[in-house]
Amino acid sequence: MIRSGGTSNQTVLLLLVLATITFVAGRAVRRTVDNSDRSRTEDYITQYEINTERYRVTTDDGYQLIVYRLLPQVPAQGAVLIQHGIRQSSAGWLNLEKNLPMQLLEAGMEVWLGNSRASPESAGHLTFSNDSSQFWDFSFHEIGFYDLAAMIDAALEISQRKQLHLIAYSEGASAALTLLSERPEYNAKITSVNLLAPAAFMANSQFKLVALLFNKFRFILPMSVDQILINSNQLSKNSRKQLEHYQQLILSGQFRRFDHGPRRNMERYGSRDPPNYDLSKITRPVVLHYGGRDSTVHPKDVEHLSTQLPKETGVQLIEYDLLDHGDFTSRTEAASNVYPMVVEDIVAKSKQIEEVTVAKEALMSE
Hints:
about 45% helix; globular; alpha/beta; Rossmann fold
C-alpha cells in the first residue's frame, strides 16, 4: 500500500496504470499457444498443391528454424525470402486468398517462407529447452543477426543463387535492418529490400504513454501484470527482451542496440549508452511500405527512417492511406494494393539483374 500523502489519488493512478497496461498488453502480446500455425502453413500448401520443400536450418547460436521453399510452375525468375512479424509465423502470410506468396509464385518467383526462433513453427534449440530462460534471451537483434543470416545462406545454397529479394514485415523489418547494418557483407546477397510497416524508429508510437507508465511503475507492479507485459514466454511465445527492446526504442526515439544499463553497456559496447544501428551501411535498394493510419509505427517515424538510409540506395516511400499496422497481413486491401506493388518492384529488379547479366556475358564472349 502507498502510505505517502494523497494516498487515494496515487492508488487510483496506480490502478489506472495497471488497467491500461493490462488492456494494451492483452492487445499487444496475448495469443493462444498451440500448434495451429504449424498445421495452417502445411495445410495451405497441401490444399493448393504447391510444389514445396521443407528445411530445418540451424543458426550459428544453435536455434533450429523451419523454412519452406515454394516453387512456381514455370522456371523461377528469382528467389524471395519473406519474414514475418512479432507473434507470427510463416502462416501469417497465408491469411488472405490472394496472399503475397501466391502472387509472387504467379509472377514466376521462387518463394522462401522464413520462421524466426520465436515462431511456433521453429524447432527449438540444440541445447536449451524451450522453457528455459536461456532459450528466450533474445530480441529482434538476434533474429536479424543470426536467424535471417542463416535462412538467407540456406536459401542461396539450396537454390544455387548468389542473391535473393527480401520482404519483411514489422519485427521482420527490424531484423532486416539489423542484419544489413551489423553484418554489411549480407548486402551483397540481397537484390532488393521491401519493408512493410517497418518497426525501427518509434518515437510517435501509440504505445509511448504505456511505455512511460510501465517504465515508471514496473518495480511495484504485481508479478502477474509484469508477466503479461514482458515476461510473456509462456503466455504468448514472446521473448521478454523482444518486448523490452521495442519499449526502449519507443522511449529513446532511436533505432539502437538493446539497453542493458550503463555498467553492462560499458562491458558489451564500450559506452554507457547502446550504440545506434549504422544504417549508412545498407547499400541495397529499399522500398518502405507504410500505413497512413498506423499508430504503432507512425508514418512520421517511417519517413524519418527513410532519411537515415543512404540516398544512393534510391530509397522509396509508399504510403497506403487507409491501412493500420496489422492490416498488411490481414486485410484484403493489402492483397489488392500493397502486394502488387511489392511484386512489381521485385519482378522489375529481377529483370534488371537478368539484363545486366546477359550484357556481361555478351561482352565476355566477344
